[in-house]
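Thread: "does anyone have the structure for this chain?"

Original post by V.I.:
We have the sequence but no experimental structure in hand. Need at least a predicted one for the grant figures.
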Amino acid sequence: MTTPSPDKTSETWQNLSTDWITWAERLAPAAEKINRHMIEAADLEGLSAKRHGAPLDVLDLASGVGEPAFSFARALGGGSAEDRVNIPGVSGKVTASDIVPDMCDALVERALEEDISNITAVPANMEKLPFEDQSFDVVSCRFGVMFCDDPDQALREAFRVLRPGGKAVFMVWAPLVDNPLFAAMDAVLGNILGIGFDAAGLDPFGFGDVDHATDRLKKAGFSDVTDTSHSPAGRIPETAPFWKPQMDMLFGNVLRNSSDMEVGAINAAMFETLAPYIEDGHFQVPICFHVLSGTRA
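Reply from O.Q.:
Generated one for you, tokens below.
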């Protein structure tokens, strides 16, 4: 596995930011569904009770263009009346962060469009957060910590900025073998373009071994570390190239330079590889992820 330098890591995501911005709105409903697992793990109602009803401060790391920061903001009373979650007795605000300033700018624009007023965005490297010790009640990170140059330093930083009694929640991918979409993507792009996760310097599955992952949280200082695993499968018409969003957001900088013939070959190979998951005219491909949580005592 090739580990990029911090500057290279920032450059990688900067080059992919237009792809994330492009797909943000269309992926939001699906993102909202899986974000609920993180909100449940954060136990906002329990934290609010511990804080005697005081507004909660949530820090979301690697927010991209809004997820799961928007879901947390709605759970804390933000957003329009029809979108608001309204957990009884819970209020607060979210500080979203991302290593790419363009992502933060796009997030702010989306928040304005969706009337989410209890959220701000700060460009930040999660390995060196620009916040004081014990500044937040919750730290969240969805599918981000594994891409750090030093994930364990990022965990230590998350612990540092948590207040005593606060919770950190991380959503991470389960192993490649449990994620057929990514396995297909890695194989197909490797065969056609000579690029895959390893060649691109990406390690989405660095926290896939849940026992090792929970040990890493404990070594960073967290106590009461818990984990849950989830394997939802959507129901998508077989005519839809549903792999395109994830592929663009991870390899868009390469795909933009690919020929029409190569793109056509990629789509054909992805369909063929994932065809065993078609049932009643629909793809039903599972995605598998873990939700890890820990407390600062």
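V.I.: this helps a lot. Confidence is low (pLDDT under 50) at residues 1-6.
O.Q.: and Strands lie at 56-61, 92-98, 119-123, 136-142, 162-173, 223-230, 236-237, 278-279, 282-283, 289-295.
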